């Protein structure tokens, strides 16, 4: 399953979701398909789900809202281990991703 | 109808059908010609080989046959002669025995005279002057005038001989009856008494008189066989003088005095008891016919013949065809004395090849050319020499070896060969003709098949071509008949469908145009409706955006509000993005307390505006309610907003930070962008707010996450608040403005008024962005300690 346009690409491989490129989608409605994709993966019954954001160059505030909501979703699942792989290469990641750990302390945030 | 038309379509040169026929026909023709040619060549070769083989075989066989035939004929002739020799020898033996035993001789003679007086009693013929016994006897005995006494009776010694010779009556009939076929057998007395006794009885003396006048006066031997008797007398003296070691002496053919036939006589001389002299002879005649029959019976092929020739070339036996073929000419012996000979010599032949023919040696098969009616005809001739005999012709006895010749026209001996060759040739010709017929037949069948097949194959294509031409000529009613289920059939079906569509479209073009026009009208109407809707929607969205922008700008603090503070100098700049963002800033004053807020709602549009309005309202309310605890302030604000977000289903949140100033302390709380502090001495501090809170509206209770931080704020210090619209503004190269650049600008402008700081930074920022799109709201606040 993959969602993409000329600037970005998001796809799932087994229990890992990859984000790539620049996300500047207009709002929650625009992010809805991505939300459905990842939310579906969270409910597939994996013990661990990884968000691989190392290729995610930019994510606008609506996109960050999406990640926050997904993190809250994962928190509700209880025993699901959420791993978030990020990179400090892109400033926004260092700025925004720690919030996810605040929302869900069990998130395994790996900023490389 | 189309099909008929197309089937009559001629196979034009260059048409598919013509090419098809040409290619297939050519291939078959080539194949047939090659195989046919090979077959013909082989048949011809076979025929040639067979002819050669058969020819050689037949020639060998024919020559062998002729050779064998000649051998066997020669054996037959020899056998015949030997039989005659034997008969003569038998008679001679009996007579010789009589001579050798005179006593028994006279007894036997007396006995015969007694029992057959006719055999010994002679009657004198006055007129002819000879004596002869009367007819009725077994043998006739003639006694010539010079053997008669005065009384016309035989001399006594002659009479004795008559009696003695009567023994012939006992032997001769039996010999004549059996053994070789003999004309007559006889006894001739010695030269002193040459009586002539012959069995069977004939009018012997009378015949002699008629044929040989004068014989009655001359000695028999000298008259008829001059030299013969003397030769024998010579032999009596010395047997070695015999030319051939045999007593039998043969005469050349002559005309028999008695029968008038051409005969050959075989004599065996009788000797006196003391063997010192000749005592007469025993003889037998055979007609030349008998020999000739054997020879003339030779029939090789159709006109092959045999001949029997004396060593001098005189041909004694030959049939008339042979005589003619060999060009022999008969001539009567003109010598006049003795028996009349026959002169028919090969040497006198009109055929030069025959005249030169050598008889003295056997040469095997010879090939001769004989003249026949002006043409030279090839003949095969083979000459066999018979066993040598003693021959008397005239004069002394000499050795004679007769030659047997077999002559066959080569043409006839080769006839079987020719026949075989003809058969082979005929068979070959027949095969050739059959082969040619077969080829022609095959060609015909193939031609018919190819034409039929091509017609079948190309009729579909031709029909298609014709139909296509008619469509070109705007006859859209045309359809092709589908006769096959192959690709051509499929093409035909497709063509028919196409033709139908063309027909339909052409015939219904006007109607179609009308329909299409109507459809287009409908579509146009629909489009204008949609356009109107779109315009309405746009208007609505535009209105919405206008409202949102209005709200955003409406709730911002008024300019004079910012100038109300003695201790602080505050300046702010906000520029909504094209699609109206959700930036928020506020300066709330309550008593001597000042609360400066800055935030950023996710997303754009009316909802963001409304959320921002809510934030502003709640913040004002809390401020007015005297909430001085920064943590509690944010917690309550979040709590109120979270509930409203759930209710309004506004799927958004916001970052939000506040600066609380009571104239002495500057307290920072809430999570937002970094706060930049430029000290009067030029130091730049960047204060991270990540640990001071969490975005508003995500969680119901965020009290656990809210922290405060005190910022020392002295005279001349400058605090900069901004939204990410500043730091994440992009230039043409996609480069971000960034926090460092912001800090540098702040440092550059630190000594200027807050108003100028903001204006300067914004000027630099706008220069940086250039023509690049502004993605997000840009908000910048500068707070300077006076």
TrEMBL record, chain A:
Matches recorded under NCBIfam families: slr1659_superfam (NF047705)
The name this protein goes by in its record: STAS domain-containing protein
Gene3D superfamilies xrefs: STAS domain
InterPro entries xref list: STAS_dom, STAS_dom_sf
Organism field: Rhizobium laguerreae
Stretches assigned to the STAS domain: 22-84
From TrEMBL, chain B:
InterPro entries in UniProt: Bact_Sigma-Reg, HAMP_dom, PPM-type-like_dom_sf, PPM-type_phosphatase-like_dom
GO cellular component, one term: membrane
Ligase recorded as keyword: no
Keywords: Coiled coil, Hydrolase, Membrane, Transmembrane, Transmembrane helix
One of the Pfam families matching this protein, by short name: SpoIIE
Transmembrane segments: 20-41, 431-453
Stretches of the chain forming a coiled coil according to its record: 506-551
Keyword Transmembrane applies: yes
SMART domains attached to this UniProt entry: HAMP, PP2C_SIG
Gene Ontology molecular function terms on file: phosphatase activity
Domain HAMP residue range list: 455-507
GO biological process, any: signal transduction
Listed name of the protein: HAMP domain-containing protein
Classification lineage: Bacteria, Pseudomonadati, Pseudomonadota, Alphaproteobacteria, Hyphomicrobiales
